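Appendix C reproduces, verbatim, an entry submitted by the partner laboratory led by Prof. M.T., so that reviewers can inspect both the input and the predicted structure.
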Amino acid sequence: MREDNNMVDESTAPETQPQVGFFDENAPNTGIAKQIETQQSDTEGARIIYGPDEMNIGGRLVVGTPNGYNTIQEAIAAAEDGDIIYVHGSYDAQTAGETFPIQLDLTQKKISLTGGHPAGSEIDATGVNASVIEVLGTGQRDFENRALVSDLKLIGGNVGMRIRGVPYSTYRGLILFKNQSHGIEVDGYTSPEGRPRLSPGLNFIDCMAWSCRGVGFKLNQSAKPANTNFFGCHALFCGLYDGNNLPGVELRGNSSSFHGGTIQNNGAAGIKATYGRGQGLYNIYFEGNGMSSEYPQEIFLPGGSGCFTVRDCYFQGIYARTAPNGRSKGYHGIFVDSAHKVSINNSTYRNYEDALIFVSNVADIDLHRSSHLALDNTPFIKTGSNALRLRDNGDIVPTDLRGVSGLYVGDKGIHNGEGNYPTGLAVWNGNNWISQIDGGAIH
């Protein structure tokens, strides 16, 4: 028999238990009644304020409802450090006369902003030229404070949410919809004294940028957004309308990454990644990106990115709806141009006109050829000029090693038989390739 700490031992319990009602004013001052009295005494001195224009319950300020604040900006003005501002589903920014951009200035107050549900708590700035929300902070030297914005739908405006100088902060459950510029933009910021305030270490969790005229998620290099991570986020139909040709995501910063989520039907590449080392894309579903591009691609890695990893992603090149570029499917899944030491693992792919992967002006791209699954006859890789030392699981793929120097002593490659040297494995000794077939140097 399972032990249950909440069960009463009937052998020792009295025959009758006192029936104390939860609101029994005549109950003895024991048991539940005693707990109620203790809880009531514990709340003495807490900030509990009701009124026709505000609702503040123990540090929780509600915007909307008959007794709530009229605007978010009013609630921010009334808030104190540690407060949470809740945007109720009844809030209507247009009717309330909200002032945009709504400024969450953490240099003044340490407060959080949230809604009850990302599709139920809306901030509608349709027809407004200003951004919807601006989050400001003190910059990269602030290791103590954390911004938190969650469960809101930000409609219209210029940028949905602009983040400046707010390191190590979290943004969760946001929907960015029909913003006239970018959905979320992490931007550079300068203090009044002229010092840069940077934004490393941001986390975006379960956020969706949908039908934004600009980039869905844009990280600017001026913010130096190192170690910015996206978890289960989605960018769909961004950078596509009004003649735009912009990616769904612009990833920047050393050690920044994108995990899971859907990147689909954006104007230019689904994800463009540059200005960073040690970046990675993992377990992402890509479909039909580059809808406004002549030669569309899902991932674009131009110069400025390196030591980049693409792993466990699904690539579907087909366009399920009419694309402005007039194509029925994409051209490349991954386009690598001048980005060195890229590793591409475990991709499943189909429906690309030219190839899954195209590389030019690159060195030491590791293709992990045997780990990929083709679902149709899409070619795996094509190369442009200056593709140096293409690799497969660390070893240089079959090539004429006479014109190639090894990267390090002990580097391995496969000679293709040119120059009457034996076809097979060779090892770099620092000066020459040494054939493992006959032991001779390959000159």
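Residues 100 and 229 are 28 Å apart (CA to CA). Additional entries are available on request from the coordinating office.
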